[in-house]
Write a structure and sequence with these properties.
With 501 residues, the chain is an alpha/beta fold. Helix content is 38%, strand content 14%. It contains 17 helices and 13 strands. The strands form 2 sheets. It has an 11-stranded mixed beta sheet with strand order 1-3-2-4-6-5-10-11-9-7-8, sandwiched between helices. It has a two-stranded antiparallel ribbon with strand order 12-13. It starts with a helix and ends with a strand. 56% of the residues are buried. The mean pLDDT is 94.
Length: 501
């Protein structure tokens, strides 16, 4: 464990299994998980998946006769897509229960690029309502619990995508991130997650706009994140923000995978101790231990001072809140069909004057200058991903947006990346015992604009030396292991329940 994309492609190339068999195994496992209360991360199955799996199987068979025509790293790999992003043939409902069930007519650009890379777009995953809760609860959806804890939330808003990867249903999934919605569930579920530079992945086919929302992957390994980025990055005319991205050139697309083996010798990592003092002691201990492991490998920790970053949550709340309120005016949802926490949020936001948004953007500009100044002297900034481990599913937390202390503990360190638009990766670097469960801890590495390669290099080195590792949860599916252990031609995967490792 884990089962990254490379494990599947190796088995495909060796002829030990094929994408069609893996998809059949996946479908059977999903059906079994659906019988377990709050364990299934599947919202809808993608109707074209069987055809894509068959095409990928044919490609591997052709490559066996002609090795020079080797399929790419995502060929035949099952991938999950958050319900915020359009999938041809499926509805786009954004975690609500009142948008029409009419199927999308076209794929989002990122989904189309995944298909072009040979990936099997297998299923759609549920999210929190309009993506506004980082906790991982939604009165409009039966969101899955954290695979590492029977009584703990999985984080949001990309809840289903995180649980899909953590459970083992797919090596990599697509999420979105406006205030940590990729990194928070990745951290709480013990995964790697990446929010790229703003505009790196085009948002064409994602109804959310604004100045904070990014698309990004959650994966079982850093290599999975890099392969995903290689397949999906580059400008698209449908998303003006992506016009700032570097040109879509073959050398640019392979930069991320080339960075995997670069190491950390000479890397300077900035640490603001005042920010680290705001998180749980066990979270700080695990994160700093991982950073010291990088120092043993040739990196250097450098003290930095980021006073405005202390106020990132407050700035982020105003920016994302008022941009959300503007989107609600456009969408005009029936007020009685919106969850009570969102209704309360919208009522509070509607009382803010326009000057509040302007003030927040001025403070945001100052925060950007502050972070830019720090990055002139270091290569990366190191932060906790969340200040706490996965919260318990108590009654107050079921309200999603009403526990303000929990809210800030989850988003405090994540809004920095969204407000600046800089790339940020979370890596699973430890665990904490809480409520009788062993819950994951994430370390966040934030890099300079368009420099995902350095973030990936550091994350990959953490993984390589064992300082970061995706551990098997209590409830899991081993698609490859079960399939190879089953008689030829049978469907072998099913859910397992055991001790985490």
């Amino acid at each position: 464990w884990p089962r990254p994309a490379a494990a599947l492609t190796e088995a495909y190339r060796a002829g030990r299994t094929d994408p069609t068999a893996v998809l059949g195994s996946l479908r059977a496992a999903c059906a079994q998980l659906a019988t377990m209360p709050r364990r299934s991360p599947v919202l809808n199955q993608v109707p074209t998946a069987e055809a894509e799996a068959a095409a990928a199987t044919a490609r591997y068979r052709a490559a066996a006769a002609n090795p020079s025509d080797a399929p790419g790293p995502l060929c035949g790999i099952p991938i999950a897509i958050k319900e915020e992003v359009a999938i041809r043939g499926l509805p786009l409902r954004l975690g609500t229960d009142f948008f029409p069930d009419a199927p999308a007519q076209e794929d989002a650009v990122v989904v189309a690029r995944l298909r072009a890379a040979g990936a099997v777009v297998a299923f759609q995953t549920p999210m929190t309502e309009f993506g506004m809760s980082p906790v991982g609860v939604n009165g409009k959806r039966t969101l899955p619990k954290n695979p590492h804890g029977d009584h703990h939330a999985a984080g949001g808003s990309s809840t289903g995508s995180a649980v899909a990867v953590s459970t083992g249903l797919c090596p990599v999934a697509l999420g979105s991130d406006g205030g940590g919605s990729v990194r928070i569930p990745a951290s709480l579920c013990g995964l790697f997650g990446l929010k790229p530079t703003f505009g790196r992945l085009p948002r064409t086919g994602d109804p959310f706009g604004g100045t904070l929302d990014h698309l990004g992957p959650l994966g079982a390994s850093v290599a999975d994140l890099a392969a995903f980025l290689c397949a999906t990055c580059g400008p698209d005319p449908g998303d003006p923000a992506s016009a700032w991205a570097p040109p879509d050139l073959p050398l640019q697309r392979t930069a991320f995978t080339r960075a995997l083996g670069r190491g950390v010798a000479g890397l300077r990592i900035g640490v603001d101790e005042s920010l680290w003092r705001l998180c749980d002691a066990d979270v700080a201990h695990a994160g700093m231990a991982a950073l010291h492991r990088l120092c043993e490998e040739g990196a250097e920790l450098v003290s930095v001072h980021l006073p405005l970053c202390l106020h990132a949550p407050a700035i982020g709340y105003i920016v994302i809140g008022l941009e959300f309120l503007e989107a609600m005016h456009v969408l005009s949802p029936p007020k009685d069909r919106v969850g009570p926490d969102l209704r309360l949020l919208m009522a509070a936001l509607s009382q803010l004057p326009a000057t509040a948004y302007l003030d927040a953007q001025r403070l945001r500009a100052g925060l950007c200058r502050e972070v830019r100044g720090a990055l002139l002297g270091v290569d990366l900034l190191a932060l906790p991903t969340t200040a706490v481990v996965a919260p318990s599913l108590s009654e107050i937390e079921m309200d999603g947006l009403l526990d303000v202390d929990l809210l800030e503990a989850l988003v405090r360190y994540n809004f920095i990346g969204n407000l600046t638009g800089l790339p940020a990766l979370t890596a699973p670097v430890g665990r904490k015992s809480a409520g009788g469960e062993d819950l994951p801890i994430g370390l966040q590495l934030l890099g300079d604009a368009w420099d995902e390669a350095t973030v990936i290099a550091a994350g990959a080195h953490l993984e390589r030396i064992g300082a970061a590792r995706v551990l098997r949860p209590k409830i899991f599916v081993d698609l490859l292991g079960d399939l190879l252990a089953s008689p030829k031609g049978s469907i072998g995967a099913s859910f397992h329940k055991g001790e985490p490792r």
